[in-house]
Write a structure and sequence with these properties.
Elements (H helix, E strand, L loop, with lengths): L4 H35 L6 E4 L8 E9 L8 E7 L9 E5 L5 E4 L3 E5 L9 E9 L5 E3 L1 E6 L4 E4 L18 E3 L52 H27 L4
Antiparallel strand pairs: 1-2, 2-7, 3-6, 3-9, 4-7, 5-6, 8-11, 9-10
Helix pairs in contact: 1-2
Amino acid sequence: MSRPLGTARTTARTAPTARTARRVSTVGALLVAAVCAGAVPAFAHTEVEAEGARALAENVTLDFHAASESDTAGISKLEVILPKGLAPADIAYEEGPKGWTYDTTSRGWTVSGPELAVGANAEFSVKVRQLPDAKELVFKTLQSYSDGRVDRWIELDDSGDDSGGHGHPAPALKLGAAEPGATPIAPSPSGEATSAAPSSEPPAAADSPSPVAAGNEKDGGDGGLSPAAWTGIGAAALLVLGGAGWWLKRRDTSPST
């Protein structure tokens, strides 16, 4: 028995349509994977932690952790800019990488020394005389490498104006409510600067602070895009692929003239 002509046409179009769908799916998967891979560096960050951090708490140790983002150079310096309510004289250095020194600046402090191994993270601790009466403290940080690269961890969650478009969130510490009866203590003398260095190493000369908005710094490899920007790119790519797949399927199933 001969097969109707319409059935033959339908069968002939089924295979190309399936192949087209598979091609679109494969291209889409590869594109999404590429977008996600490009967004990975934006999620590396610096952190600050403190056990039982509460507003107006005294003698609180802050632990800082700076992740390395360079495959060719080691971290050699960290500059921390203090939030409102804290002064350099309120900070005392506790410990850090071997051979590194601590120095105060007009707006915070620096810890620096021999470059760390490539890929090694930098960790150090300081003690705060008293935390301010606040809900959150943000410690903007400039992270320098031995090859001159500087990662600027200065972006604020509630404003993109201070970020310079680099997608690097500043370390933030959330504070619990103050203990009942806690009150501010007398402020530290403004001229009382604290400087410390490992006992086996002579104190190093203080480096001048790096400007936050400097335009000649070598930033990280995130291409100047924040995680939100990468997410938008991925969504747009998926919409384009979906439209292309629909158009190809419609073209393959339309009647032949």
